[in-house]
Write a structure and sequence with these properties.
Radius of gyration: 19 Å
Helix content: 25-40%
Largest sheet: 7 strands, parallel
CATH topology of the largest domain: Rossmann fold
Order of helices and strands: EHEHEHEHHEHEEHEEHEEHEEHH
Shape: globular
Length: 337
């Protein structure tokens, strides 16, 4: 039995919660999760008994913007591995809350890495940036490889450029075992309802239950995305830190199936029991500018780790819709966002 310990920031998010599931099933690690005291724990609901019994999963309360709490977090978790997933992760919100986004994602990352640097521990660290760093990419640069120039199209994307560069700086300047990833669109059960495919699935589930009229509100449907499943993403993150990790490296990770947001919506609608659903543009869902060609070249990461996506787009979308059908049936009231 190993004595490995890992720290996951953002454990209550979609990716963090699926990473816990993966690690519980595939390792014997002790898992420590950083969260804020007022976080929504619904994504961890299925493992709350394990948390209560301190059965391999332990919560630590703190905040990326509170340096002493991060020092305490590192001291408690004594990590061999760190998965830094926590962020203000919604691009559209970053237009109305740019300073919080920059503070949390850039300074928060620096706070975490500095607290590790000043500690007695030398973990292997995954810093999660985003494919949004590439922003508006000309067609001649598709698929997007690691050296394509950053052209961020939102305050969120700018903050993730900072996250990426801060992570690489700590790896190079202080000889820390830091690697950064630019994960392209990944989704599945527990996806936040502010993201396009998840709000579509939620609205369909609410229509099927008769809660709202058969009209789906949408934003930009013309953006091209390459889709992957969150369960494939967390497997990639595990391989990143365990398969011959190279300090200072940076990788694009993503799926192999590409389609527009409109085609994704059409597929979700094809799964619905209702055939009378109309589509309506909602101006509040449009970004001032959009990253509209997000197609990755994942050769570098695949060559190093052997990773490839296993879960097909169709299953991801079916599971996402079924997740929302289950959630809506709990009779909770949901915002129509």
């Amino acid at each position: 039995m190993s004595n490995n310990r890992c720290l996951i920031t953002g454990i209550t998010g979609m990716v963090g919660s699926h990473l816990v599931d993966f690690l519980l099933e595939n390792t014997d690690w002790q898992i420590y999760g950083l969260c804020r005291w007022n976080d929504d724990f619904s994504n961890l609901n299925h493992i709350i008994p394990r948390i209560n019994n301190k059965d391999r999963v332990h919560l630590i309360y703190g905040d990326l913007n509170d340096y002493p709490s991060l020092q305490e977090t590192v001291s408690i978790s004594k990590p061999d591995y760190v998965f830094h997933l926590a962020a203000q992760s919604y691009p559209k919100t970053s237009f109305s809350a740019p300073l919080e986004t920059l503070q949390t994602n850039i300074i928060g990352t620096a706070n975490l890495l500095e607290s590790i640097r000043k500690s007695e521990y030398d973990p292997i660290i995954h810093v999660c940036a985003s494919s949004e760093v590439f922003g508006r990419v000309p067609k001649e640069f598709l698929p997007i490889h690691e050296e394509v120039t950053f052209h961020p199209a939102s305050p969120y994307a700018i903050s993730k450029v900072g996250t990426d560069l801060v992570g690489r700086f700590y790896g190079e300047a202080y000889n820390m075992n830091v690697m950064t990833t630019r994960m392209f669109t990944h989704t599945g059960p527990r996806r936040g309802d502010v993201f396009a495919e998840s709000t579509f699935a939620k609205q369909i589930a609410m229509i099927e239950e008769g809660i709202i009229d058969p009209i789906i509100k949408v934003g930009n449907l013309d953006s091209m995305r390459t889709w992957s499943d969150v369960r494939d993403a967390v497997h990639a993150y595990y391989l990143l830190v365990t398969k011959d990790p190279i300090a200072g490296e940076y990788y694009n990770i993503g799926g192999t199936f590409s389609c527009t947001v409109r085609e994704m919506l059409d597929y979700l609608l094809s799964l619905s029991t209702r055939k009378d659903i109309k589509i309506k543009i909602d101006p509040t869902r449009l970004r001032p500018i959009d990253a509209d060609l997000q197609v990755p070249d994942t050769t570098k990461f695949a060559s190093h780790t052997g990773w490839k996506p296993e879960i097909k787009f169709e299953k991801t979308m079916q599971d996402l819709l079924d997740y929302w059908r289950t959630m809506v049936k709990t009779k909770r009231n949901y915002l129509t966002r």
